Amino acid sequence: MVKKVVKFFDKLEDKIRTKLSKKPIVYAFVGSVGIILLWRGVWHFADDIGMGSITSLIIGVIILLLIGLFVSFFVGEQTIISGIKKEKRIDEKTEKEIKDEAFTLKEIHQDVEELKEELKHIEKEIENDI
Question: Is Coiled coil among the key words of this record (predicted)?
Fold first, then answer.
């Protein structure tokens, strides 16, 4: 029963994400509403249990640092990487540029796999010669 519910929501999430990804501004708006409502709920819960602002700040930063989300959430790894490489952000790229990058990455992956196979073959030859 639980597996069916999880599978249903997983498929639903995939469908919604697919549709929203075609409309990034709507996607951003819906996502921001969800995040704000989540924060509002956490905020009110913290108030209900009497947590002060400094305590909330300290606990929040510690949690985010411990699980590795502090930088990635507020800045984003892609933003940092694109800044270092002086690239366009993904939302500034055209569909063709994204597809070209994906194709290039696939080619690189294939090349790496071929090199791994060649190395395995060379290792076997070396082992047989010894």
Answer: yes
